[in-house]
């Protein structure tokens, strides 16, 4: 169903992202049911890719690009630009529940150039291959002028231990200034429960977690799942002193958490930027909290030595790589050969070439 251009761009983006997250969740579920995960080792420690990752990314990026051809989109997986996208991977519907909400006043007039979409088609891939299905999420984050502003977290296998055939997909979404939807939040949580990685831990991560004086530590998979524990108030903080997390891991969860009054920064307490030209790794680590964020930042500064903390640099925007520039030149040359009806090269076509580069860039 088409949506009027009078609906603010942000709400159209969120609505489309909710719809496509459900289709991506179905793809992940189908891969699991068929039993052939198609596992590929991408070369890093516990860095796996499955057919669910690949197919879900094709679905999400192709669908969003079809609806929003002039918005930059970055996905986690490296996929060949010539990969054919099956017709049933394309989602063109908009979620009507999202569209019933009013867009916050300060976000009503954003344009395509203000937006970058960060996609993790299957966060928690290792857990997916090991049967920890509640740790698996589909993440679609929408940044506006470099700030995580709206997000979608879809759990393809929610409540899988109780509902036959691997549970049921659940979608949580939120917009800063509007709120978050699709879940129930605990009214109260005792102690100081901290969540951190289950598969990438080391001395520095352990030391940083301990600096925050936890009463309980939840070691689980998936950045989206960890922040979801905070969103539902099942944990107070997520502490990850490592450069392993990337922008597609944190953009969507940060937007939803902050819409509830929480915060997500690097471990120094500095904001994480999400511009198109930013480095993809969160080189300052990740610290997310339900409340009292500065208390955690100060505890880390107080109890973790400065030499260790100096390893984590706050993220800065990075200029395009030479490879990126050369690829863009090729796209522009190809685009220039295709003339519009009046004999001029369309500005929109040039813009589309830029989006296509973003679509296939890790």
What proportion strand?
Answer: 15-25%
Task: Name the shape in a single word.
Answer: globular
What is the end-to-end distance?
A: 31 Å
Main sheet summary: 6 strands, mixed
Count of DSSP-assigned helices: 11
Alpha-beta classification: alpha+beta
Q: What does this protein look like?
A:
- With 362 residues, this protein is α+β, with helices and mostly antiparallel strands.
- Helices cover 35% and strands 19% of the residues.
- The protein has eleven helices and 13 strands.
- The chain has helices at 9-34, 51-67, 96-99, 125-130, 203-211, 223-231, 247-259, 293-303, 306-309, 322-336, 347-359, and strands at residues 40-41, 48-49, 72-75, 115-123, 137-144, 147-158, 168-175, 179-181, 193-197, 216-220, 237-240, 263-265, 286-289.
- The strands form three sheets. A six-stranded mixed sheet has the order 3-4-5-6-7-8, with helices on both faces. Strands 10-9-11-13-12 form a five-stranded mixed sheet, with helices on both faces.
- The two termini are 31 Å apart.
- 45% of the residues are buried.
- The model is unreliable at 320-362 (pLDDT under 50).
Task: Give a nutshell description of this structure.
The protein is of the alpha+beta class and 362 residues long.
Give the helix/strand layout.
Blueprint: H1 9-34, E1 40-41, E2 48-49, H2 51-67, E3 72-75, H3 96-99, E4 115-123, H4 125-130, E5 137-144, E6 147-158, E7 168-175, E8 179-181, E9 193-197, H5 203-211, E10 216-220, H6 223-231, E11 237-240, H7 247-259, E12 263-265, E13 286-289, H8 293-303, H9 306-309, H10 322-336, H11 347-359
Parallel strand pairs: 3-4, 9-10, 9-11
Antiparallel strand pairs: 1-2, 4-5, 5-6, 6-7, 7-8, 11-13, 12-13
